């Protein structure tokens, strides 16, 4: 923040010459135009009025000259002091003295805020040592002061990425990522819900004031033995530290126990209130250091004594105003808290109503969808019912057809059974006929064998008769032996009768006999043909039933019957007609020689 303020004194027509200064606070910058004759107090009061600060005794204007931090003197002109020759001249508005108890002494909110910012910066810059655990807790209060109450919906992970909250020493001391540190800080931060900004800053300062290095200004010194030491000045007194230990002082002088402090050149003397006690003398490197030490000692001692006296009317008024302001802020915070609570409850109620409304809308939508689904299901069920009715009709029709088919199958089964029975009967008849034919064939075959034997015997008898006839003829007709064809027929016949061969052919009608034999043969052949036709007819009927009887056990039996019929038919057909003729002749009782003669005719 930049601001220019022109300072006028008196009602002179000509404006006096001025110089510019730049005041740097912990969180802002301001520029002022100052008169040449202004003292340090004039500039300091101007800055305090600009900030609205009434607790001015804690602060001062600091500048750096030749590498050494120095405080602007209030009773000397600004331009008469050893300040940097620059335009504008830079001064840092900082706390020069620290309170013993921040909660009791810091009355104004601006005072508290400036102390909070300065102490926070000192901790982050490691001018004040702080343990890692306390650092995380302090960081959580700093976040509360900056961001207010924690809201997980708004403060998402990574919202502290650009904030400097921990000293680099702490960040490097542990092998934790920035996200892990943020998680630890956020865990504490969430516990500070409901704490206002000034309360969070005060809690921060109350923790910080218990740190060993809080509010201590260190200066390098040497004792009379030229041992390097550190001298620390704070609100409670003067402390002597070893060069490597700024936490625990080797010796301390409280302000109440110090009678006098003085310096001469580089030597600084501390006289205790107890006159018997040893006077402490030390040496600094520069005279300016002794002056600065003495200046800090005087200021801290004055504040120390003021705290133990009755407050002035100004302080009392400030404390009363501070109490009233705190009470007002407390009531305001309570009112805001109630309003916030009511607002949160209203928001929760609104969210609940919205959720309920959304739920009701969702339920209504689901109900509508369910209704539509129900309507669709009803339509689908109606269609299914219609389809089911049609299917029922179709099934009834199919059932009727099935019943008709069943009845037809029953009738067919009965017919099939009847046909099967008839076929079995025909099969048995065919088997009987085949057996008879086989037997007849066997009998005829045996008769043929007998006829063959009789024929052989007849031929043998004929041969013997011829031989005997030849012998008789040779004895009675020797000349006919040489010429047998000249022998008269009646003579041969007479001789033949004489040879006891009696063949009476007169009683035999050869033509009639031949006719009868031929007729019987034809009858036999006709009967055989009829039987063969009957067998073929049975065979065709059996073949027609094969496809219907494949699943029954009669199929193989039909094949056997057909085979037997074929064999019988073959046996019957293989009978020689000559066998039949011979059988017929023999059955007539003819002589074997005649049989031979007749057979030769065929």
Automatic annotation (TrEMBL):
Domain FERM: where? 19-308
Q: Which UniProt keywords apply?
A: Cell membrane, Coiled coil, Membrane
The keyword Amino-acid biosynthesis is annotated on this UniProt entry: no
Give GO cellular component annotations, separated by semicolons.
plasma membrane
Q: What is its main location?
A: membrane
* Gene Ontology molecular function: any one: actin binding
Pfam families per record: ERM_C (PF00769), ERM_helical (PF20492), FERM_C (PF09380), FERM_M (PF00373), FERM_N (PF09379)
Question: What residue ranges carry the coiled-coil annotation?
Answer: 315-468, 521-548
Residues bound to a 1,2-diacyl-sn-glycero-3-phospho-(1D-myo-inositol) are: 73-76, 291
Q: Where in the cell is it found?
A: Cell membrane
Family annotation (InterPro entries): Band_41_domain (IPR019749), ERM (IPR011174), ERM_C_dom (IPR011259), ERM_FERM_C (IPR041789), ERM_helical (IPR046810), Ez/rad/moesin-like (IPR000798), FERM/acyl-CoA-bd_prot_sf (IPR014352), FERM_2 (IPR035963)
Q: Which PROSITE patterns has this protein been placed in?
A: FERM_2, FERM_3
Q: Does the keyword Coiled coil apply?
A: yes
Membrane topology classification: Peripheral membrane protein
PANTHER family, alphabetized: MERLIN/MOESIN/EZRIN/RADIXIN (PTHR23281)
State the name under which the record lists this protein: FERM domain-containing protein
Species source reads Phasianus colchicus (Common pheasant)
